[in-house]
Structure formats: structure tokens, C-alpha cells
Amino acid sequence: MPGPLEIVKHLPRTNCGECGQPSCLAFAVALSAGKVRPEACPYFPGDLARGLSGKVRPEVADQTLAILREVKAAVQKIDLKARAEAFGGRFEGGRLLLAYLDGEVALDAEKAERLDGESLDPRDQILLYNYVRFGRGTPLSGKFVGLEAFPHSVSKVATLRRYAEEPLARALETQEERLREALSRFRIRKLEERADLAVEVWVLPRVPLRIHFWRGEAEEGLPGEVKILYDQQAPEYLDLESLVFCAERLVERWLEMAGLSDAF
Ligand code: SF4
Questions:
Q1: Which positions make up the signal peptide (predicted)?
Q2: Which residue has a Cα nearest atom 6 of ligand 1?
Q3: Band of residue 263 on the pLDDT scale cut at 50, 70, 90
């Protein structure tokens, strides 16, 4: 793990406090000691954050497991059978079955797992339990908006840009064909809209994301751009942090399906 002075060079040094630390230097010290996750600062460069993520102390990983235990406990009070339709899933064999990214998951209050046997990261499990916990069953509007349209989203917009829109734009700039092929692994609908790529992808049955990509103009030094949109009713299903994680996870998984993990 790099030292605080090395880390602080990559921070904007605005001391905005959004990471929960009083200053950028305090964040750098905590990160250097492995006490916080790099993603806690929405302005920390995404590539560096990914490289450092695996170096956080075991107790920070333990915090993730503690959150997972907490969300599982909250789900115990929910009648999954009665609510299955509201979540866009089905109830079979005592478990709720949901489409998730490129696969299907089954969950009850004890366990969440992918039906194809692939392991499910604790962060995915927290997202799934939050979906069940907060999903109200409100019909989707079919109108899509940027994350900035939702209240209190300023810092989350920066996180979305850094960890989902920017890496995806960089990947599409050079690997568009591979990524278009990999899209077929997901539940998608191609959109007739003015963009070089416009597609709706379902992360969860009630959480579709719209992705628009415009290629850059190399001669004019303009980079490609990605904009991710949410249904106006998305906050009826997930909190803002989870909505951002949906986009991050989709991009991660999409790159993985295209054989481009960690390349962007
Ligand atoms: S969120 Fe980032 S920019 Fe803001 S104080 Fe924390 S480290 Fe500094």
C-alpha cells in the first residue's frame, strides 16, 4: 500500500468530507493504513482504486460481512412468497428467484447464490437483499433520467462517472465490437436513439439502465462519452448508493464477459 503522501497526490485536496474523513490527508492516512476503502472517495482515480481495493485490512472486509448480516436480518421479516411478483421474481422451493445481470439468483433470508454455481460477491448479495428490502413494487415510469435528477445525488454522480461511465467509455472507444458481442449475455433492448450505442440493460427485474455511448473525435482530442440513465422510479427499489453500484457492477461484469477484466 502506498504511503499517505503518495496517495494524497491523487486526491483533489478539496477536503470536502464526502468520504467521512475530515480532510483529504486524513483519508490518505486511513487508506494507507488499510482502514478505509478507496471507493469511499468519489474523486479517487478509478484505476488506482481498483488496484488498492484488495489491500484493505481484513476488518474492512469484515465490515462488508457485517452489513450483509444486517441486511439478511432485515429480510427475515419480509414474506418473499407474497412479494415475489412485486420484485419481478418468482417463488420456488422456498426461495425467491430473480434475474440478475447475466444470470439468475436464488435467495432466502439465509443465503443468496447464483443458479449457475458461480460465486456471488458479498457486495452483490448486499445489493440483492437491499432490493428485496426496499423494493416497493411501484410500476416503472418508462421515463429515464440521469442520476443527478434524484435528490442528494451530487457525490454519487461523481462516483458513477468515475467507476462506471468513464471506464466504460474508455473500453468502448477501443473495444466496441467485443463489448457489443458480450452484450448478448445480458437482458437487453436495443434503442433507436441518437448515439453510437444505445441500449437498455436490466440489472434486476425492476432496475433497467439505459446506456448511451458517443464515440470521441480523436483529431479534435475529444474522448468518447458514456451516459447512464435510470428509470424515474428507480429510487422506489434501491437507495442511491445501490443504484450506483448497479451501474458499476454492470460495467465490471460486461468487461469480464468481453474478456477485458481490469483492462480499463
Ligand atoms: S471525499 Fe475525497 S476529496 Fe473529499 S475529503 Fe475525502 S478524500 Fe478529499
A1: none
A2: 19
A3: low
